[in-house]
Amino acid sequence: MQTPAHAALGDLLSYAGTEPLVPGTLVRVPLGKREVLGVVWNEPVSLEGAEPDMALKPVGAALDALAPLGEAWRDLVAFAGRYYQRSIGEIALAALPPQLRDLTTTQLARRLKRKTTAGPVAQTAESANLIALSEEQTAALARIEAETGTFLLVGSTGSGKTEVYLRCVADLLARDPEAQALVMVPEINLTPQLEARFKARFGDEAVVSLHSGMTNPQRLASWLAAHSGVARIVLGTRMAVFASIPGLKLIVVDEEHDPSYKQQEGARYSARDLAVWRGQREKAKVILGSATPSLESWHQSRPAEGEDPGGRYVRLAMPSRIGAGELPAVRVVDMTQQPGKTVLSAPLLDAIGQRIARGEQSMIFLNRRGYAPVLACGDCGWKSECPHCSAYRVFHKIDRTLRCHHCGFTERVPRACPACGNPDIAPVGRGTERLEEHLAELFAGVKHADGSAVRIARIDADSTKKQGSLESQLAAVHAGEVDVLVGTQMIAKGHDFRRITLVAAVNPDGALFSSDFRAPERLFSLLMQSAGRAGRDAAYLAAQGARAEMWIQTHHAQHPLFMALRRHDYTSFAAQQLEERQAAGMPPFAFQALLRADAREQSVAQGFLNLAADKAEALPGADLVTRYPAVPLAIQRVANVERAQMLIESPSRAALQRLLAAWQPLLHELRRTPEGKGVIRWLVDVDPHSI
Ligand code: ADP
Ligand code: ZN
Ligand code: ZN
């Protein structure tokens, strides 16, 4: 094998072998002084007649107790590397469990034997007591059975989407004894409840999970079970999209709109998009499920009959909630009509008070943790800036610290203004900690019928740092030990709280005017999702003759986003957003990538980007790709590093990809020139989430 062209990117390496090895075989190979895990990538090449100085190191032991990684898997890895501008090796090794490297062949053989003798599969554990599907579920299922390709399942929160996934998997496994399914969720906290549901239906042996919260031995066990076909169902977060699943016939991406599917460091892949690609490559059906699909997926889906013909995905609608009551009534409080500095408006407080009196729960949602985002001196104008970042440090009252949420720099709160000595420095603005304190004050005098005090609780990244604390706090909410729950978006997702009948977003306006064009889309889905937490116990509400409520406090009560939310009208919101995006030539009507550079000085970072743009001028695809000027990031400096980025955009995905591919080697070179020397790191983000 000659030195492959990719070697410069630290990509494919050549080794000598005595026996020809099948592509996909896992091997141990020497690299420098170490021995590392490798995957045979190409067919072996004979070196007869080659230059004698091509002294290749010999390949180490092959892990031949394992079946080679399949061609489809290798194609997926190669595609992800190409598309996201990373090396094949980086993607492949991140996809494989770290402990694979350390296993001896005998150990592997023993583990596989133990696994397989457990046997596939104590299947359909509770097939006897299946619930009868609703009409909407039945119709959705019938179309998934009848057609192929990718489906967009648009179902309200609580419409029974998970039940549809379970049935699709059950039908598949019953029909095909070799088939496997991959089911993805956006967050680790959502895996336990999903795992429980799948295990109850299919038995413990059939289901494995893959996510970053697992220990290395757990990850290895799950991976081996998937690769060997013993596990029929693989559940996981975004990393699971790279699992080796030889019998893959069905992929589910639940909450497909969730930004967590996009990896934000290293190889910045979208697991949702790769799932669709993988489904096509392997002829597996793909179900993308959401109450508020991403505008990309919505735009790709074929509308109902009678409308214009649309995109490639089959759209399936399940608008009705099952078991839960109707969606909550949305109440919008116009904060311009409230007295200045109002935090919680009188009508909202009144509604919360009524819930407390009835023994129901309320959930108040504020997407900012800490006590106050800034501490300031009224005399001299000092503010709690971070010395290392272009951001303010957040005041955390609980331990009297100023903490930077970007670099982590933490100090005790000063006794007096560090600039002028004024002892009277004050918090400005409000985070969850302060809101919790405020509510505790407001309801201090209020008692339950039995004389007990009102209980306020908070769930956010600060309150859940300790292992297991999220679980115990959620359990307290479920057990009814909390009257009012304050939290960040952590509490908005997925949880099936039965007693919550009021949800409030008290300060959502920031996202309306954000420079990030996706902010309204995210806000809308977050608010719809939050609304979905309320009124999940239909029988209770019916007995009370009550309806759950979602409250929004805003200074822009007439904003179309809130108007659409009032009607729970995703369709018109999406139509309005897509119209704006089309007019502005933004995704999904254009394709984007970001080139980012970090340096000690902003001018160095921007200089690198601008030089890179000059280099791109002559490349293939350049005429179809717009390169915008380099700009600082919204938070320009983090931990004393200056950050800059350049947006690259094209109406043609192919043209953008062509340009990026040709650009990559030039960027590596540029890094080594005097202009590139000061650059600490650079990266390409394809289909970036926030720009
Ligand atoms: P989603 O995933 O759309 O939020 P789920 O599948 O979790 O909805 O269903 C919500 C609730 O309704 C669950 O408790 C589920 O067991 C129940 N459910 C789902 N389908 C049915 C059905 N056909 N009949 C009765 N209950 C159902
Ligand atoms: Zn001062
Ligand atoms: Zn900082």
Main traits of this protein?
32% helix, disordered N terminus, 691 residues, binds adenosine-5'-diphosphate, alpha/beta, globular, EC 5.6.2.4
Q: What can you tell me about this protein's structure?
A:
It comes from Acidovorax cavernicola. InterPro entries: DEAD/DEAH_box_helicase_dom, Helicase_ATP-bd, Helicase_C-like, P-loop_NTPase, PriA, PriA_3primeBD, PriA_3primeBD_sf, PriA_C. This is Replication restart protein PriA. This protein is α/β, with parallel strands linked by helices. 32% of the residues lie in helices and 20% in strands. The chain contains 19 helices and 26 strands. The protein has an eight-stranded parallel β-sheet with strand order 5-6-4-7-8-3-10-9, sandwiched between helices. Strand 7 (248-254), helix 8 and strand 8 form a beta-alpha-beta unit. Helix 1 runs antiparallel to helix 8 (271-282) and helix 4 packs across helix 5. The longest helix has 20 residues, at 653-672. The radius of gyration is 28 Å and the shape is globular. The model is unreliable at 1-10 and 116-120 (pLDDT under 50). It binds adenosine-5'-diphosphate and zinc ion (ZN) (2 copies). One zinc ion is lined by residues 377, 379-380, 382, 417, 419-420, 422. Adenosine-5'-diphosphate binds at residues 131-134, 137, 155, 157-163, 322-323.
